[in-house]
């Protein structure tokens, strides 16, 4: 296999930044291209929970996410944890019997698969982990000690900064208008919205919610789910919680030293009703107040509805499309968990032609042309 000389990474969220950083450190010439600013898209509007405990739909997907968790720890050793990596564990509990039975059953499966799960009472949690949380003393609470959360924007900026310092090029605020191919059908050029053109050997489509559009530039159909989610940041000092948690009706985590991130699948279901993000953010804050009363009067700093980049079958699309040599995809939900491991494995595949077994079930050609 001819080693690629120049790679255009389209989309500089956590996946694109991870792929580009890994390519750069292996000696490839990398050009990052993003229509906005690195890390400011869906990466910045994710719950950013690093886990495999919620990924039991298939064993291969679970294993990939476990590898993602390991890759985060390895990346923190390589570049330093700084302000992006928070391996503080994750809490989950429910207030409804059916939901509780479901997550307790999942916990049994996780333990069988070698995943660490600990059970506490609500009283234990308040005494040992989260004194500001309100929950019944007898509640059954699961703690996943190996999970954590990531400040996605900070991680992306760190990876891009290191790659640029090593010779990569960053084109931000510039959209991709076309992908040109040669007589043999292989990738040759990328046309940009500023009128310039890049001569490249490889294109990596890491464009997140816009990935289907980028695929269409090579006449490929990449089917995607439409699953918007609303995320709110509320400002509070000091931050009263210490880790990510799934409480009844609300998910929350710290977001640095001055804010908390809120999300809820129940609130997401209201997006189709036309509710505006500010109203949804207030509903999120109200739900959070029932779990952490200190959050009740905290001002809403930001709220946004983001479109999750989920291929139609729910699984990642990672690897080459043989009909267009030089074109690769890195498109997935749970990009925060999977970014570092997909970045490493896909970079290796681009440079060597060898696909890691962890990616075997997630090749792009499973979607018909």
Top keywords for this entry?
single chain; 369 residues; alpha+beta; eight-stranded mixed sheet; 31% helix; globular
What structural class do the secondary elements suggest?
alpha+beta
* Strands in their spatial order, largest beta sheet: 6-7-5-15-16-17-14-18
Catalogue the unreliable spans.
Answer: none
Mean pLDDT: 96
> Strand fraction band?
15-25%
The outline comes out as globular
What would you report as the Rg, rounded to the nearest angstrom?
Answer: 21 Å
- The helix tally amounts to 9
How many beta-strand elements?
A: 20
Oligomerization: single chain
Distance between the termini: 25 Å
Largest sheet: 8 strands, mixed
Portion in helices: 25-40%
The H/E string reads EHEEHEEHEHEEHEEEEEHEEEEHHEEEH
What would you say this structure looks like, in words?
By secondary structure, the chain is an alpha+beta fold. The protein contains nine helices and 20 strands. The protein has helices at residues 14-25, 59-79, 97-112, 122-128, 152-165, 211-216, 265-268, 277-291, 335-352, and strands at residues 6-10, 29-34, 49-50, 85-86, 90-92, 118-121, 140-144, 148-150, 169-172, 176-181, 187-192, 197-199, 202-205, 228-235, 244-247, 250-254, 259-263, 300-307, 317-320, 327-331. It has an eight-stranded mixed beta sheet with strand order 6-7-5-15-16-17-14-18, sandwiched between helices. It has a six-stranded mixed beta sheet with strand order 9-2-1-13-20-19. Strands 3-8-4 form a three-stranded antiparallel beta sheet. A hairpin with a 6-residue loop joins strand 19 and strand 20. Helix 1 (14-25) runs parallel beside helix 5, helix 1 (14-25) packs parallel to helix 9 (335-352) and helix 2 (59-79) crosses helix 9. The longest helix has 21 residues, at 59-79.
